[in-house]
Amino acid sequence: MDLTRRHGIFLVILHLAGDTLGMASDRKPNFVLMIADDLGIGDIGCYGNDTIRTPNIDRLASDGVKLTQHIAAAPLCTPSRAAFMTGRYALRSGMDSCGGDRVIKWLGAPGGLPPNETTFASILQKQGYSTGFIGKWHLGLNCESLNDFCHHPLSHGFDYFYGAPFTLINECQPGGLLEMDVAYRAQLTLLTQLMALAVMTLAIVRYSNMLTIHRNVIVYSALFTILFFITWYLKYGFLQYWNCIIMRNHEIIEQPMKVERTASQMVREVQQFINRNTKAPFLLIVSFLHVHTPLVTTKAFTGKSKHGLYGDNVEEMDFMVGSVVNAIDNNGLKNNTIIYFASDHGGHLEVKDGKFQIGGWNGMYRGGKGMAGWEGGIRVPGIFRWPGIIPSNEIIEEPTSLMDIYPTVVYLGGGDLPKDRIIDGRNLMPLLTKSTRHSEHEFLFHYCGIHLHAVRWHEKESGAIWKAHFVTPVFSPEDAVGCYNILICACEGDNVLHHDPPLLFELSADPSESNPLDPYVDPQYMIVLDRINMAVTEHQKTIGVVPLQFSFLNNLWRPWLQPCCGTFPFCWCDKEDSNVSGIL
Question: Please, what is the average pLDDT of the chain?
């Protein structure tokens, strides 16, 4: 954006603000960005749910702007969060996969958000902002050594970090259903067998006097150690101790994390961070562990909703949102703080407890978590509040993206966008302040891993929004709405359908994607598809080759990278003040 246009928008903002900012206009705005985990757009009252109670989120919408076409750049946690933090499609930074795992699976693996990526936090940090991240990170930890912290939040522009560097998995809750243990048991069993074969082979070689004793001692010790730890994992399941931890900055303070008190601790940390930074501009990201399974919910909210444990968990998160907003308002920061709330992607359809589905609801939209093309996997809530600057009780139906937060925050924080890379997000302020009618996004590209599954075109002349599906997941059973034969829909292989000609929907008239246009009858089909194909060709020219962070080796657990509070593998500590349960 050129200087003249930037100056003009600032004048518009100040005019809209009037006297409401008072003395606050002398300082840069604060940012509080809240991201839910696995929350379906249909789970919130202001987006149509009339049974789950979300008064605090609904109040944010009535006091600000609600986006109805807010789109995640990826349908899974890690790539979506990478795109959010960098303003770029995840595959540009290697934060997506060409097969297999599509998220970071181990804290002790070297993959993660590359050190050469520039987050909006690092830009605001240089503009004098105090920057904090509280909650779920899930963008990696170490690269080559246990304490290099190359992927850590403090290496990506944050002054303060409190939370889970990984994510919630069922194993984090004592007695919970097995998740990763089941998924990786066969893989680790095979690895154990290969190790045993290698040990036997080396033993034969040793007794044939083909290696020196000194060399054998080193090789034997290494192999037996690895074999021992893998066997120990298979028998006792140490994932709870290895992946489920809480850190404050670089220090492990809980291993394993005490999931029953994490929500209260997060609320306390948010309140303390805001209290410490009332005199200077700050950026705070609150990344909820809610509503990811195992749906850990405190007693105060258990059994209180009409939708079982999932509804309880949503309502508890809404209470946490209210606590964050109250911390802003009670400190007199309301008029100078931009509050944003969204979800990282759609609700998880396939997750069950026995016969009961315990994931989110995506309203009228087809599909869910893991599905990059169908709306249910990528259309998420998006709410902004900034009194006096952004109008209240406003609805914007233009296509927007989680990637748009990056240029919006950088612009308002007084920074400059990087000139050495493509930024896919667009500044939202002209749209939010009603100084323009249309989003700057003409096309949005929907990736599943590194595979382009669908493309959205906003035809601004007519107002129509089209979406072409080149690849869709195979639902099981065929009349289902998800891939119930596996936990997450696949991106490639026998688990997807390739459409030739592509499926084409007019989302503005058919948001549930129920009635594709007939390519042989509808005269608009080829006109629209030709325009989309041209955009795909131009877009693909901008995609470079970068190291994939979720390749087999980069997502493979390595004992020497495993964070451990104590003596590995006996990783245990509790350095946290446990007297916080009264907050929730």
Answer: 88
